[in-house]
Design goal:
This protein has one helix and twelve strands. It is mainly beta and 161 residues long. It has one domain. The strands form two sheets. Strands 1-9-10-11-12-8-7 form a seven-stranded mixed beta sheet, with helices on one face. The radius of gyration is 15 Å and the shape is globular. 34% of the residues are buried. InterPro entries: DUF2617. Pfam families: DUF2617 (PF10936).
Length: 161
């Protein structure tokens, strides 16, 4: 699913993103609900950041005023009734436009994905793509910062305890 957002994205730098679990749903600019193997996820775009909600559990990657920036490269935490494995990296692809265009095309072709395009550049996007695995549910996200040529990728696997 593709959403064209009329609001400029709020996050300005990849280095300002932080990870939080358990936040209440934040105001979203775009949402898409998917069900995978009986688990319902709400994919949410917040500025140039994201939130995934499963029942009363959530993962938020955003510039949060009460948290320092810097995503962990890897993290495994027990949060509520789930084990959450998280990975993140920030790349500067040599062909930023082609990389972002491929991600957008792949996500648009997948009914379990959400792509939000922000005004000012077709490369200012946040994309989320969910799927099920033997371990539980998982999703990948991409946060594109065209002004810096940065692409933040995250991957999360959430398993019930």
């Amino acid at each position: 699913m593709r959403a064209r957002i009329s609001t400029r994205f709020a996050d300005s730098r990849a280095a300002d993103l932080s990870l939080a679990y358990g936040l209440s749903p934040l105001p979203a600019l775009g949402t898409h609900q998917v069900t995978l193997d009986g688990v319902t996820l709400e994919l949410r775009v917040l500025g140039a950041s994201h939130q995934v909600v499963i029942g009363d559990w959530s993962e938020t990657v955003a510039c949060l005023p009460d948290r320092p920036g810097a995503l962990p490269a890897t993290s495994t935490e027990v949060v509520g009734d789930y084990t959450a494995r998280f990975e993140a990296r920030c790349d500067r692809p040599a062909d930023f436009a082609a990389t972002v265009s491929r991600i957008v095309a792949d996500c648009e072709a997948d009914g379990h994905s959400l792509v939000a395009e922000f005004p000012g550049s077709p490369l200012a996007v946040t994309a989320l793509s969910a799927r099920s695995t033997a371990a539980g549910v998982c999703w990948e996200t991409w946060h594109a910062y065209p002004q810096a040529g940065e692409l933040v990728w995250t991957s999360s696997v959430v398993s019930p305890l």
